[in-house]
Amino acid sequence: MVTQITRGIKISVLTSFEGTYFKNYKIHFAFSYEITIENHSKDSVQLMSRHWEIFDSLNDKEIVDGEGVIGKKPVLKPGESHTYSSGCLLSSPFGAMKGYFNMINFTSTRNFRVIVPNFKLSAPFALN
């Protein structure tokens, strides 16, 4: 598990290899990740959008931007947390992701970024 704290918001990421499958005569490697967002600050915050950089050892970097996470824009009061699961497909057994969440602080009404640390995606069978 990797973790990082930005402005009192702790991000923890746990990854898992889900298997391989063929689609359009090409093998794909499926990975899941679980992200926990914990508010250790004194202010209520809301996650508004996300930005991902997905690295695949056999492809170019892919950028993904979107509203919220899995269709939600969670509000976190001090001491609260939100956990969600998602996934990605790679064309190789090795990759990584990193990014950030755009959030708003309800006390100051300011937007800020919370860093999601780089996390590795690797199929166990491909490691020595």
Provide a descriptive summary of the structure in words.
InterPro entries: ApaG_domain, ApaG_sf. Residues 3-128 form the ApaG domain. It holds the Pfam family DUF525. This is Co2+/Mg2+ efflux protein ApaG. This protein has 128 residues and is mainly beta. Helices cover 0% and strands 69% of the residues. The chain contains no helices and 9 strands. Strands 4, 5, 6, 8 and 9 form a 5-stranded antiparallel sheet that branches. A 4-stranded antiparallel sheet has the order 1-2-3-7, with no helix packed on it. It is elongated and about 50 Å long.
Give me the secondary-structure topology.
Layout: E1 2-6, E2 9-23, E3 26-39, E4 45-56, E5 62-67, E6 75-76, E7 81-90, E8 94-105, E9 111-122
Antiparallel strand pairs: 1-2, 2-3, 3-7, 4-5, 4-6, 4-8, 8-9
Rg calc: 16 Å
The number of helical elements comes to 0
Which series of helices and strands comes N to C? EEEEEEEEE
Beta strand count: 9
* Distance between the first and last residues' Cα: 20 Å
- Overall morphology: elongated
Low-confidence stretches: none
Looking at CATH, the homologous superfamily is ApaG domain
Q: Class in CATH?
A: Mainly Beta
The CATH topology corresponds to: Immunoglobulin-like
Largest sheet: 5 strands, antiparallel
Structural class: mainly beta
**Average residue pLDDT:** 95
- The number of domains: 1
Protein name: Co2+/Mg2+ efflux protein ApaG
Organism: Flavobacterium qiangtangense
Domain ApaG: 3-128
